[in-house]
Amino acid sequence: MGDHHRDAAVVVAHEILGLTPHITRMKTALEQFGVDVYTPQLTQGPARVFAPSDQEAAYAHFTRAGGVVAMAARLNAFGTSLRSRYRKVGAMGFSVGATSGWIVASEGVFDAVVCFYGSRIRDYPELAPTCPCLLLFAEREPGFDPLDLAERLEEQESVTTRLYPCGHGFADMDNPNHDTVAADDALATAKGFLRAVLLEGKVDDDVEP
Question: What Gene Ontology molecular function terms does this protein carry (predicted)?
């Protein structure tokens, strides 16, 4: 993975589309506040990148690679590999990457986790994160009520939630649901949260994203 020169690192967990230009943009944005950023391929097999219009093919590829549970295991392993090299390690995930981040947040590897529109977090509401978690939901999600889920999850002291009046994928400028105002606010909130935990040493009640 090469040499590092910073005290903290963030692992960005991609969505089913793979390592898209959006992930590259997020890497650049996070590096600006003083952390090393990693964007590993978290699905099994040859790396593939899909266009936002190729959701069905991307989902089929993701499912063949083991789905969200397998992705979470790879994210956990990658985070573990960084622990001896950094004082603090965080994760930021999008969609299935966010759900993977939620899963591993209860496993003691990461110091902070940010989840952008992890709609399948609803399948794992019983998990109890061992680190501060920031969950950024889109209000317009088919199949479930994000507000209800956010209220349930925020009963845990380590969880902070925010909802945006947008559709799934709003933070990605290449997604049809992109919303510039929401995307800018969500990214600023995520960066502030990660900075507070990873660089300033704040935890749980001290964290104000």
Answer: hydrolase activity
pTM (2 d.p.): 0.93
11: closest CA among 35, 47, 34? 35
Q: State which fold the 10-180 domain adopts.
A: Rossmann fold (3.40.50)
What is the residue extent of each domain of the chain?
A: 10-180
Q: What is the pLDDT along the chain (209 residues), one digit of tens a residue?
A: 444 568 999 999 999 999 999 999 999 999 999 999 999 999 988 888 998 889 899 999 999 889 999 999 999 999 999 999 999 999 999 999 999 999 999 999 999 999 999 999 999 999 999 999 999 999 999 989 999 999 999 999 999 999 999 999 999 999 999 999 999 999 999 999 999 999 998 765 555 55
